[in-house]
């Protein structure tokens, strides 16, 4: 016969096993991920009252508005990446008129600048040609002239004078830049840029930049050293950075004015403007790095009205 099991012993064993199990650490498992920072922040804001939530939203809106104002102020201070700021020399590109020399070193009053004409004409050459034409077309006097003479020769002489005046006015209108097209204006402006910013002209007026002191093993520090004297040039300077920047500024102004009249539908002109602006930006960065804020850099920036927006940062048009 099977042994008889006491109910009391069974209950005591069961209680002992439960007591041992309850002493073990119980580990809980959760299928959900931990709460993120954004969700915790959202839950915290949800617990706020309506007044605190409205005040928080008001502060956030004021912060965004202030940031937009600061960005607008920075953009205004940086200037226009295309036009820069207006200067007399840049504004003279529209009419291709030379400005008088207003330097404080000049003792005498500034002389009027020489007029520039279309088609590579020289004013002195035109004046000599007109004088020679007037002399060749002058009528021949076959009779002695008397005061109050009303002979046919007097009428011929008067007609000849009137015809010469008419021809002079016609030649002046034909060769004047007031009726020139964009190509003639750009050609004259390029020549003006070469004459103003070329080193064949500025070497005698602008001081040479200071070199960094680099003493050798047997040399003393040469504080305040300057660039060596410039080598005499065989012709006008057309390839320096200053001249190229000035020429690009003249082209940019011409293209920008044409784009304003045609509208934004002219994609080709807009692309040309973007290429010219970026090319000028690279030259400006090179000149600034090379001159280290020297007199040539200051001369280019002041005369052309170039701001930080024309060379600093990213330019998007």
UniProtKB/TrEMBL annotation:
Q: What processes does the entry annotate via GO biological process terms?
A: translation
Q: Transmembrane region positions?
A: none
Q: Which domain of life is it from?
A: Eukaryota
* Gene Ontology CC annotations of this record: cytoplasm; ribonucleoprotein complex; ribosome
Q: What InterPro entries does the record tag this protein with? A: Ribosomal_uS15, Ribosomal_uS15_bac-type, uS15_NS1_RNA-bd_sf
Alphabetically sorted, this entry's keywords are: Ribonucleoprotein, Ribosomal protein
Example GO molecular function: structural constituent of ribosome
- Region Disordered: what ranges? 204-240
**Protein family:** Belongs to the universal ribosomal protein uS15 family.
The name this protein goes by in its record: Ribosomal protein S15
What is the species listed in this Swiss-Prot or TrEMBL entry? Eremomyces bilateralis CBS 781.70
Which taxonomic lineage is given here?
Answer: Eukaryota, Fungi, Dikarya, Ascomycota, Pezizomycotina
């Amino acid at each position: 016969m099977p042994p008889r099991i006491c109910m009391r012993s069974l209950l005591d064993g069961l209680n002992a096993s439960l007591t041992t199990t309850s002493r073990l650490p119980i580990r809980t498992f959760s299928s959900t991920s931990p709460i993120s920072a954004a969700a915790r922040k959202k839950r915290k804001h949800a617990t706020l009252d309506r007044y605190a939530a409205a005040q928080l939203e008001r502060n956030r809106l004021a912060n965004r508005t202030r940031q937009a104002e600061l960005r607008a102020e920075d953009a205004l201070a940086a200037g226009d990446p295309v036009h820069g700021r207006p200067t007399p020399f840049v504004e003279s590109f529209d009419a291709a008129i030379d400005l008088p020399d207003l330097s404080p070193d000049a003792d005498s009053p500034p002389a009027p600048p020489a007029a520039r004409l279309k088609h590579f004409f020289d004013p002195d050459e035109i004046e000599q040609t007109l004088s020679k034409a007037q002399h060749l077309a002058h009528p021949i006097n076959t009779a002695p002239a008397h005061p109050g003479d009303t002979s046919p020769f007097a009428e011929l002489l008067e007609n000849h004078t009137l015809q010469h005046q008419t021809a002079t006015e016609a030649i002046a209108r034909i060769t004047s830049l007031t009726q020139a097209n964009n190509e003639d204006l750009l050609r004259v402006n390029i020549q003006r840029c070469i004459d103003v910013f070329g080193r064949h002209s500025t070497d005698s007026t602008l001081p040479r930049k200071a070199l960094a002191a680099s003493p050798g093993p047997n040399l003393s520090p040469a504080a305040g050293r300057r660039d060596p004297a410039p080598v005499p040039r065989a012709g006008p300077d057309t390839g320096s950075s200053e001249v190229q920047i000035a020429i690009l500024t003249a082209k940019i102004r011409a293209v920008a004015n044409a784009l304003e009249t045609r509208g934004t539908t002219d994609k080709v002109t807009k692309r040309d403007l973007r290429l010219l602006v970026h090319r000028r930006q690279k030259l400006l960065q090179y000149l600034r790095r090379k001159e280290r804020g020297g007199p040539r850099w200051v001369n280019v920036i002041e005369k052309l009205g170039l701001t930080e927006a024309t060379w600093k940062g990213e330019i998007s048009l």
